[in-house]
Fold this sequence. Notes:
This protein has helices spanning 13-16, 22-31, 86-91, 112-121, 123-149, 153-168, 183-190, 194-206, 222-226; strands at 3-4, 33-37, 42-44, 52-58, 61-66, 72-78, 83-84, 98-101, 105-111, 175-178, 211-213, 216-219. The protein has nine helices and twelve strands. The relative contact order is 0.13.
Amino acid sequence: xxxxxxxxxxxxxxxxxxxxxxxxxxxxxxxxxxxxxxxxxxxxxxxxxxxxxxxxxxxxxxxxxxxxxxxxxxxxxxxxxxxxxxxxxxxxxxxxxxxxxxxxxxxxxxxxxxxxxxxxxxxxxxxxxxxxxxxxxxxxxxxxxxxxxxxxxxxxxxxxxxxxxxxxxxxxxxxxxxxxxxxxxxxxxxxxxxxxxxxxxxxxxxxxxxxxxxxxxxxxxxxxxxxxxxx
Length: 231
């Protein structure tokens, strides 16, 4: 059962509410309800009537869609500071995806009425919301491009690993990445089966494109991975 967190919010505002001025961030915090969720909790479901905006304070949230054939496609993993449901809250349309916690998480929720009221009262918040929608749009375009322009599952996996390298290490040539996803979940991210992902990982290891030590994935050469990306 989720339990409400009494406070401790506004001292973390600069980490989760973007670069809002302290007074504006505090106004957002006062309107937010923050709750802890266990692993596997559904924050909202695809096609569900929107209720408001969710901000990830701690933990990770999986954003996914389900096809008519029952297959699941993971759109992305949302890390602390990520915002969910902004476009639906502003447009009043149902949620386009399902958001599910991947680990115990702390989530702040802002009702649609509160986020719209704050946008009318504070131009900084309206700008922040616009930035969130723009980031989601840019991310979606990039992911569609990567999926559509990749000719093979190995290229899609290489793109995913290069993206992880960019987001998890300062080095652009090599690095260590914590792999918190199963092969089945990786398959759901690149549109292929668990068996194919396992086969690709075995092949990448044989070619020394990757090395694995438990949950840590070592990428010796970014350039070697990028050589698999043709588009």
